[in-house]
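Hi team, as promised in this morning's meeting, here are the two structures we talked about. I've kept the exact order from the run log so nobody has to guess. The first one is mostly here for context; it's the second one we should focus on when we meet again. Sequence first, then the predicted structure tokens.
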Amino acid sequence: MNADPNAQHSPSHSATSSPSHSEDFSHRWYVLASVAMGIFLGTIDGGIVNIALPTLTRELHASIEGVRWTVLAYMITLASLMLPIGFLGDKLGKKNIYNAGFVIFTIASALCGIAPNLATLVTFRILQAIGAAMMTSLGMALVTESFPPNQRGKALGITGSIVSVGIIAGPAIGGFMVEHFNWRSLFYVNVPIGIAGSIMAAKFIPNIKHQQRTNRSYMYILRSPQLMLPLATGFLFFAITSGLNFLLPFYLENVLNLTSSRAGIIMGITPVVLGALAPVSGILSDRIGTTRITIAGSIIAALGFSILLTLEASTQIHWVVLALIPPALGLALFQTANNSSILSSVPRHQTGITSSFVGFSRTLGFASGIGIFSTLFSVQLSTSGMNHTEALKQVGALFPAIHTVLIFIACTGILAAAIGVLNKPLQKALARKTISIANQETVHE
């Protein structure tokens, strides 16, 4: 695992940062199961409602602009609360906040299912997001504290795969529930899982409390290149992933004329690869270190996104499938090693706020990617001289817009890979400045 080169100079690495109890890792896998359920519920509900928007418009007699707030209110609340909850988790203890989040999320899910109108549904979605923020902000920190260093990468790999699968699988699971049941089932399905997770969290998650630190030591995190550079790289890759997930249905269904079910199967390649290989990345990170895996993953992902530029309006399905594997492989290697590197570089009493930074960068990247790349796609469609409805029916107008967005996605992937490759050299170049800042904070404290 990566050691913090500034540990002896940073006030946050003092001896008093150790927890006041002897370390007990006997329940680590139960903790991981509880955290996995919480993170999966919190992330999947960010996108599971998307597929039901037309249904909500019809059954709640609402406009498209109105029902969009069932998604936007959730994402905005989730992103805005992650950092404050991370601070509270480090100061007040993570277990109680995480458990409360599970309970709030479960109750809010049931309330969403019985919402009689759009305004009530949006209100309960905000309450649901509050619970999700309490879980997703502290989940990785709880895993970090519950596993010994030689197994931490593997555990974070499993957690990372759950995050990725939750984000990407939301629309597919939502479509199945809406088609075979109704839109209310999207929320009712959370209730039994939430109850089981709440019981496991209350029983197995350790109640670790650390001595309170001043805000100065937390500001060290914000100024540390050891943390901010990996966070920036992760943000870019999540933005790319969400942008690609927005774009692919238009390519598969409108250009290649696939049915929605076949398109969904092809889009399922990414979560399958991520879910299968993220734990492998964690094991490799434990054995040979996070730096090599992070660099390899970022390079493979960048090359994979560039390969997508070879897609044409007449590309065969088997080539599309093969082209989607390299970026998924690179992301699986990168994300797990990157998260392990970030969370292993801080002392235990700062894992809460650090974990929330990881979650915040993920959520912000996911939202930003959809916003930026969907806007670019819309602008490119407008250059055809047709309205969007007509342009989506014309391959000659649609595919050039898709290809333009893929170029921007590939360029962003190259930028992210460059930051990943130069991460360590940049850290070393800024190490003296960081040490100087930490020493000044020690004097003032």
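And here is the second protein, the one for discussion:
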Amino acid sequence: MEDDKIYITDDTGKEYAFKILMSYDLEGKEYVIVEDPELPDQAYVFCIGENGTIETVEDPELLDIAEELIGTVNGDE
């Protein structure tokens, strides 16, 4: 993982580069909020596993936390 980018490979082997907006730890897990440079209005949340695995976060509670963090950083609250 570079300082401001994360690279994710899908099941077909295609690699995607995402810009890291922020990272945070929650209950012992590392999360990153990223955006696709081609779709800057769309943010994604991933959980980084201990062995470097990357999983998409789909839990509504965890997505709400990420949305609150982005809102705080952007001064929306």
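Starting points for discussion:
The chain has one domain: 5-73.
The CA atoms of residues 23 and 61 lie 17 Å apart.
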